[in-house]
Amino acid sequence: MAGSDARLPGKSWGDSSESCTVLRVTVNGKDVKASVPDRLLLSDFLRDVLGLTALKVACGEGVCGACTIAIDGEAARSCILLAVQVEGSEIVTLEGTNAIHGLNQVQQLFQKHHALQCGYCTPGWLMTVYSMVKRSVHPDSGEVGQYLSGHICRCTGYRNIGEAVRQALAATNDRGAGGEE
Amino acid sequence: MKPATFRYVRAETQDQAVELLCASDGAARILAGGQSLIPALSARSISTSVLLDIMRCPGLEVVSQTLTGVTVGAACRQSHIELNPLIRQSVPLLSEALGWVAMPQVRSRGTVVGCLAQANAGGEVPVVSLALDAEFNILLRGGVCLRMSAEDVYGAETGTRLPPNGLVVSATFRRRAVGEGWGFSEVQLRPGHFALVCCAATLLLGENGRVRSVRIVIGGLTTSPYRAHRAETALLETGADHHSAIHDAAHIASAERPWPARTDLHATAAFREKAAVAAAVCALTSARARCDRGPGEANGGV
Amino acid sequence: MTVDNPADARPSRGRRRYMGQAVLRAEDEQLLRGGGGFLPDIPAPDAAEICIVRSTHPHAIVRAIRKERALASPGVIAVLAANDLDLLDDALPCVDMIPGTLDVRQRAIARDRVRYVGQTVALVVAENRYLAEDAAALVEIDYKPLPPVTDHMSAADRDAPLLYPELGTNVVYEVRQRDGNADFAARDGGLVIRKRFEFHRQTAVPMEPRGVMAKLTDNGERLHVESPTQLPQMLRTVLAGALGVRLDQIRVTAPRLGGGFGAKEMVYPEEILVPAVARKLQRPVRWLEDRREHFAATTHAREETIDAEAVVAEDGTFIGLRLKGWANIGAAYGFVGNTPITAMGAMVRGPYRVPNLDSHMFSVVTNKTPLNVLRGAGAPQATLVMERLLDEAARLLKMDRAEIRRRNVIQPGELPLDRGRTEFAGAYSVLYDEGDYPRCLEAGLRLAGYDCFETERNEAAKRGKLRGLGISMYVEITGVGPSETAHIVLQRDGTVLLYSSIMPVGQGSETTQRQLVAEELGIAIEQVSIRQGDTDEVPDAVGTFASRGAAVGGAVGRLAARELLKTILGCFAAAVGCDAAALRWECGGVKLPGDAAEFVPLEEIPMRLALFRQGTAAEPEKIEAKYRLEVPRPSYAYATHIAVVEIDPHTGRIEIPRYTVAHDCGKIVNPLLVEGQIVGGVVQGIGEVLRERLVYDSVGDLKTRTMMDYVLPGPFDAPVEFKLWHMETPTSFNPFGMRGVGEGGTIGAHGAMANAVADALRDYDVAVDGSGPFNPTWVMEALQRPRRA
Question: Can you tell me the ipTM of this complex?
Fold first, then answer.
């Protein structure tokens, strides 16, 4: 992952005279400064420039949720944002929520409930759960259904995901608004 | 699905944004949340030479009160307005309708005024703006301020009548009156998808229990939303049996559409005509139920 | 690796049992941490990016391709069309072309003619995808439009525009299936039901779109191709032929798939073109499909019209079925493009006797994206036909719907039952194996609360809602052959490595196969690792489809493990100098003969054997085994699906308060994964009949291009309550009594949902003859139909 001054690593832009802007943003706790093409999508910045490939681009129009990350604590779609739009923000991707080894509590719940099959959409769900936990969303609140409806999974049929998510939220609520470890 | 090339500019002030807009002579587009604009650029269904990001212009992030309304700045995010206590208290219809816009993960970035300017068919916020007599505050070149009513902005069958070289800096929504009920209803294929049709309604009863004022706005049935004036008239002064009056009014509301009903991939015009009736019944019924509760007790919320 | 029970982290000395255990998936750790290793995640900093120029015309002559403006675009490396690519034979394989039927195999790239919107016409190679798309917009193609034909019934007409004029027809494939007496007729008091069923066009939409990477290796001698395919070995074979090189000059590695569902059971144009570009340009290249492309470029499914005639006796027994049908297979054959329509004749009767059958099916080419299989591979349509006819017969005969099924269902004593010869799935005869269909039916009915349903219906009516119940039973061909291989190695560190022929597509194949190997060897699952998808490691495999991962892939892995045991014991016997028969394998290790009865656990065996060999001239042996399992006949899974739907007449919305599945997939390896497959399959099927629909306009342009256009099921479309019940009838057609389960959820859902919707609308004179979709507009139109007399 790029540390300080990054000058267009990742894919080359050849000798094109692409219009660029300097971007300063914090990603998973590290400050990043890079000159990025104006039209570079945030999803591509995170994946190709910073090598954070947990988020997936599955629809490119913000519908399916596979590209979900957290911006200033709130779940957002990286595929329908330009990198330059998040100047000054704090971005958290799934990599920033991982334990050093093994699985964090929410991930364990997903595994236990068989809430993933192919796993392609999974990083997106986990980031939505991350932001719900950050906001201390109650497992019984109507918001839960809204957040869940922001994701498409082709494999699981959703029931197991709903179980895992509700348990994750219940665990948070039990502990108080301390967020997940 | 990558956008074609453009230049990105962060406007420092509102006036500068307008200057740049005018200078570009139609080649620039305003970028607020971008939740409609960026995917369209990625699909290359639209293009632009300049994207003018207004999110850092001072003054656009403000929610303020006027004598009769609440003003929402152009940089205010949909999710923040949806959950804003002042909005929930004073403009509960807006808060409730915002809960139907896309999904929370999009509302975290999209703006309320962006919805108004984008005017997607079936868009919830334009519908609410018509129901709440919204005023659009537009900044033109040289510091000139223009005010347009929602009725003017959405008066054509498609698109908006917003001036191309103006910046909508805020929109002011009428504050809920004491005892006023409100309701919002939407018919969609499934949560997270567009509105096939939607309806916003407000209702105020007089001391005699008869309908003193009412607003019914239908969205999605036609490309632009419209106020159902005839349906409103039919409901005025109706009394105890609001239930059947509501049903009658809902039918009128659907039938009085000023433009042809829409057919698209997801539903036919015929379906939308009927669904609009259902949505109007639902919205009016909610509004009626909330009439008897005081402010702060009947909080819509999500 | 994650363990399901931390206390068992160390291999236990007791015999571990894994059959029937809900073992958590070890592969989840990588996936949950975001490191699944999918194709787009594989670092490729040196790879140039490809953007494909696709036809915007459904049918046209390609007169000229002008590249100058594109070549001048920033960052462009090359603009390539058919003439630039040195392809020897770029016909893409179709394995279900019956000899005598016409060859409309797809070519990797259009030369002089395009036949569908989305067809590959040219490729732009640039430094990155943004620049490649810029240039692609500048490629100028001179098309001479030809009249398109998109409707298969029109395309079958004599005077329809021809896609392949040299063939003289658009009807390219034909298959007949007969059983019993072809001249069956109605008897007195019986009835004849005639219906036309329409099945609309759908597509799989795996969450991971497609992609291909290719680069030269070994000093330009070899090509390494990476593609998330269900058929890596088939791809290698086809590539060698297309590029005119030896098999060993191609290495295909398939990363794990982000969903397949049959859409990746295909050799695609891009899988030939991208390697050809890598070879031509002598540099690594990558193509990642975006979703807009995907809807036009990835295979479609299900579109058919079936005319059915059912002859039913007075007592409700079905005497015979006559079917005539036409599949809209698009512009060319998919890899198994004729399979779904063939499945209609082969599997339509399901678990019902229906002694007489005359089925005549055709495939018709049209100017649409080529058709291939999608979860169920024609069985959803076949099941729906039978099940709707049963309900219709019940209605006309005023018979209970459960009762009419009881009278038709095959009894256990009749099984195995020969259903006649079929061309389906490789010229098998359809021979049903053991099963207990009546027990499955009764279990489903009981679990679903069938007997109390009328109360539910009335209660819902009081709330202004229309509730209906629909039954659907199917028999599914699973675990197909013709064979499969596995290779297993006892590694120096004492772990066992299985080289598998099955690709993980989400079904948990890695865990299932590891469970079976661990079970066979009596060791802990943590001691088993698995690799797949690399043709250098697994050169021969049939592949991942037709619900064969566990039943066949798992079986052959277990049998390879059994062979490995023989090898191990043989090595030990040689080393120790005793008879192999004197050694015993138990508790995951070798019990040596003698009074000491020394025990050597598996993980110590390689070291022990090495010690034995010290001081001798013997070469260290590779302790491995290979096994080839011949699968002369598939096994058949079956189930009863019962859907309860509730229709809101004001919004047209259909919800599913309860969905019940009673199923039999034989011996279950991992119930957690089995349940996941069933629930996932059901929800996919629900989505397909409620909303999913590909739309072409009248001039052959594909209108559904995004996930907003093509509406997939979301969390609120899943049934509110899901009841699942297993029965495990062993099958003698599989070495371990296993049947497949990956597709069954979708197969039953179409019929159950259609019958439930028809039941909810039983007071209306509305035909529910097909897969809908039963979207709100459809519901509204149904509710405007006159009431039934």
Answer: 0.95
